[in-house]
Amino acid sequence: MAASSEFVAIAGRPPPGLNLGALAWVRRGFFDGWANTALTLGVLGFLALALPPLMDWAVFNAVPTADNAACRAAHGVGACWGVVAEKGRLILFGRYPFAEQWRPLLASLLLVLLLVASCLRPFWRAWLALAWVVIFAAFFVLMRGGMFGLTPVETDRWGGLPLTLLLSSVSLGIAFPLAVLVALGRTSPLPAIRSVCVLYVELVRGVPLISVLFMASFILPLFMPQGRTIDVLVRVLVGMTLFTAAYLAEVVRAGLQALPKGQIEAAQSLGLGYWQMQRKIILPQALRTVVPAIVNTFIGAFKDTSLVTIVSLYDLTGAVQLALGDADWRKFFLEGQLFVAAIYFVACFAMSRYSRWLEQHLNTGTRRQ
């Protein structure tokens, strides 16, 4: 019997689900499978229990004004944000003279604007390097004084946010090119250069930053000629720079080792010299590969500035302890620390988001979007 040649239509399929939009993002991120759904419901339940009392304490029963009597009456029931209103200038600017605090405010704004501009591609021009020199010169003139009619202020009175910004930006700005040179030295075929770079990295990474700061502040002056000394801020900057450079060098070296050998051979076949090859082919690809690790090191270095308190430099965390030494406001230590933690979170979160943008912008991701 001949086989039937009758055409049989395939049953229609339902249309594909929506893959774009907020609803699809919520479904994919929070309700994708029973385990993810259970975890999402558990977190929502915890927030439902924890948020109402937290909002009562932080917002509805809080005291926003610098009224010490009202804060003491609300203690345990509502937050005393009045401690920020009362001690905010001391937290932000440390022991800097009160009448001159417009100077660290202006210096901090200039430095923040410079950092923001340096992160935006339209400003990646040759004049940006000159802008760094000009802004840092203006920063030190404003903070130190002694010229243009500004009252001199010693570095041991600098503190708060300007000191945190100065320590992190200067140490990272100098540490990054130093780290690139050390990473190239560690991969150098010359044994002498490679041994020196390995010794430096292993010695510095083998001790905690607090030990480096202690030696830079208290041990180094013992080796100086009698009657001569180096400013404590300069010693701290040198210690933090060398420490950060050692960690960044290992990150850059990882990027160099991840680069396919064929890229190096192709550059050599073009007749490029060593530094031409590094500048045009190897380093751009290696650094793009390790952008998240570099930014992670930057975030760690930014937070490590809090350790300078041990050498009597009062950054943000040291300034809040100094500000809350007042017996009238000492019991509201939590609110002061939360204020400082919020500043650190904003800065670190901004760096983290910038890292993601930069990674996508440089097309280093391998996952499909």
Structure, described:
With 369 residues, the chain is mainly alpha-helical. The chain has one domain (85-361): MetI-like fold (Orthogonal Bundle). It contains 15 helices and 1 strand. The protein has helices at 22-30, 34-60, 68-73, 82-93, 102-118, 127-144, 160-186, 191-205, 209-219, 232-258, 261-269, 274-289, 291-304, 316-323, 333-361; one strand spanning 314-315. α14 runs antiparallel to α15. The model has no long low-confidence stretch (mean pLDDT 87).
CATH fold type: MetI-like fold
Sheet-strand content, in percent, reads under 5%
The count of helical stretches stands at 15
Give the biggest sheet: none
The CATH class designation is: Mainly Alpha
**Topology as a string of helices (H) and strands (E):** HHHHHHHHHHHHHEHH
How much helical structure, as a percent, in the residues?
A: 55-70%
State the total count of DSSP E strands: 1
**CATH homologous superfamily designation:** MetI-like
Compute the number of structural domains.
Answer: 1
Structural class: mainly alpha
Residue-averaged pLDDT: 87
Shape call: flat
Low-confidence segments, given as residue ranges, are: none
Which CATH architecture would you pick? Answer: Orthogonal Bundle
Q: Give the C-alpha Rg.
A: 28 Å
Span from first to last CA? 55 Å
